[in-house]
Amino acid sequence: MSEAVDLPAGFEALLPFVAHWAKPTRQARLEARLVSSDAALEAFYQAGLPLLEPALAYLDARPDDSDPRNQRLMLMVLALVQAALAVERLGDQEQGHQVSHRYFRYS
Prior knowledge:
The chain has 6 helices and no strands. It has helices at residues 18-21, 26-34, 38-48, 52-60, 68-90, 94-103.
């Protein structure tokens, strides 16, 4: 597996989502959410939710780690927040929210 998409052992279920979601800024993760279909959001959410607590525990044990795999895992945890917002809170309103973001940009 190439270093560009590698994650720490135990988090392989997130690998199919790395290219789309492992973005370095909150704005980039928001934009990844806004271009995602409901099915894609749900798939990422379902894959990531069971790994959230293990990922947080894993990352908490390595607070100063500069390993790119661990940094990528942190980005995936942060991206899961975006997917959870769409799935848990917005639900069927997410598509309308995506449309409004095309016209209004928030900083």
